TrEMBL record:
NCBIfam families: PRK09257.1. Residues 27-391 form the Aminotransferase class I/classII large domain. The keyword Calcium does not apply. Its EC number is 2.6.1.-. Keywords: Aminotransferase, Pyridoxal phosphate, Transferase. Signal peptide: none annotated. Belongs to the class-I pyridoxal-phosphate-dependent aminotransferase family. GO terms for molecular function: transaminase activity. This is Aminotransferase. It comes from Comamonas odontotermitis. Homodimer. It comes from the Bacteria. The lineage of its organism: Bacteria, Pseudomonadati, Pseudomonadota, Betaproteobacteria, Burkholderiales.
């Protein structure tokens, strides 16, 4: 049975992690994987999470199956966070939200549902995008193409190219958009550009799928959700996947969601019933712990305030690291203007370094980023920044 099975390629990012773990260089720094580390290089366990877990431990509950669509209090908290609890779409019952196994799970449920709904639609993702976007939609059976996004020459978004590609898409094309903190480039489009994207989506009757994996890491919780508000204000039906992996530092708990904004309450009920079938036939129902923690935090005003404070601290620290990177590279002798790093947003920076330079960084200095030049600025800290700057300066010399 298995004799003809071919060896699959290693995941480009998780493969890098394995290489990093095996590296004996004592100064090694992992800027490969998209994970936030604190200034001591540690993965944070947020206070709000600890408080919620303590309360849960003090009052243990049995672990029955969850409903197929997850914890009701979790789903309503997600709706509140993404759309606003008092928003018209939520109050009118137009949003179908299901708990998902991470943001990846939200994307996958959406992809499987869309495949049933529009089997012949094509999918467009940004060029470049998070690697898994292509894989998830391809594995769901779609043909996946891309729309222009990053322009290496100008170190910015090729917005004219993006818009032209959206305008050229066939009606019904599914367009995956990064709601904020674009991964991997760190470049988001402006509010005015979102308006133009929305106009194109509307004119061409495209299906927008917004991936929200970094809400709160850009400019703030509300600010980072602004693009979603705009789609809704334009009267569009949209898909939104949510991930709490980064914003709650709950990577391994796999907490995420999928929300589908429908035309009315009746439509939302029918969509929800179909999403439940997708879930039921994939993994039956989601796990309890992560969702219970996030629901407990988001639904308790004190814990919610604590979370917002802690999330804000992560956001500010990343911004400080961007500035320190720009200053440190200059101090280390880099002549090129690197200030573009502070115009990028979120966890990543497209450094502009070539594959050869990234390989040298890894092999000679133990500084790991992806071959595309992407570095996770959220893994920089006051102890490793100088070494990273010196190493980058050497490969840029
Ligand atoms: N979308 C994007 C753009 C991401 O960067 C990530 C995580 N790297 C995800 C989705 C998936 O998040 P999760 O780990 O919660 O599945």
């Amino acid at each position: 049975l298995f004799s003809s099975v071919e060896m699959a390629p290693r995941d480009p990012i998780l493969g890098l992690n394995e290489q990093f773990a095996a590296d004996t260089n004592p100064s090694k720094v992992n800027l490969g994987v998209g994970v936030y580390f604190d200034d001591n290089g540690k993965l944070p366990l947020l206070q709000c999470v600890q408080a919620a877990e303590k309360a849960m431990m003090d009052k243990p509950t049995p672990r029955g199956y969850l409903p197929i669509d997850g914890i009701a209090a979790y789903d309503s908290a997600v709706k509140g966070l993404v759309f606003g609890a008092e928003s018209d779409v939520v109050k009118s019952g137009r949003v179908a939200t299901v708990q998902a196994v991470g943001g990846t799970g939200g994307l996958k449920i959406g992809a499987d549902f869309l495949k049933k709904l529009s089997p012949n639609a094509k999918v467009l993702i940004s060029d470049p995008s998070w690697e898994n976007h292509r894989a998830i939609f391809t594995n769901a059976g779609f043909e996946v193409g891309s729309y222009r996004y990053y322009d290496a020459a100008t170190r910015s978004v090729n917005f004219d190219g993006m818009l032209a590609d959206l305008n050229a898409a066939a009606p019904g094309t599914i367009v995956v958009l990064h709601a904020c903190c674009h991964n991997p480039t760190g470049y988001d489009i402006t509010a005015a550009q979102w308006d133009q994207v929305i106009a194109a989506v509307k004119a061409k009757n495209l299906t927008p799928f917004l991936d929200m994996a970094y809400q709160g890491f850009g400019h703030g919780i509300k600010e980072d959700g602004a693009a979603i508000d705009k789609f809704i204000a334009a009267g569009l039906t949209i898909f939104v996947s949510t991930s709490f992996s980064k914003s709650f530092s709950l990577y391994g708990e796999r907490v995420g969601a999928l929300s589908v904004v429908c035309a009315d309450k009746d439509e939302a009920a029918r969509v929800l019933s179909q999403l439940k079938i997708v879930i039921r036939t994939n993994y039956s129902n989601p796990p309890t712990h992560g969702g219970a923690v996030v629901a407990a935090v988001l639904n308790n005003p004190e814990l919610r305030a604590l979370w917002e404070k802690e999330l804000g601290e992560m956001r500010v620290r990343i911004k400080e690291m961007r500035q320190k990177l720009v200053d440190g590279l200059k101090a280390a002798g880099v002549k090129q203007d690197m200030s573009f790093i502070t115009t990028q947003i979120g966890m990543f920076s497209y450094s502009g370094l070539s594959k050869d330079q990234m390989v040298r960084l890894r092999n000679e200095f133990g500084v790991y980023g992806t071959d595309t030049g992407r570095m996770c600025v959220a893994a920089l800290n006051s102890k490793n920044i100088e070494y990273v700057c010196a190493s980058v300066a050497k490969v840029m010399a």
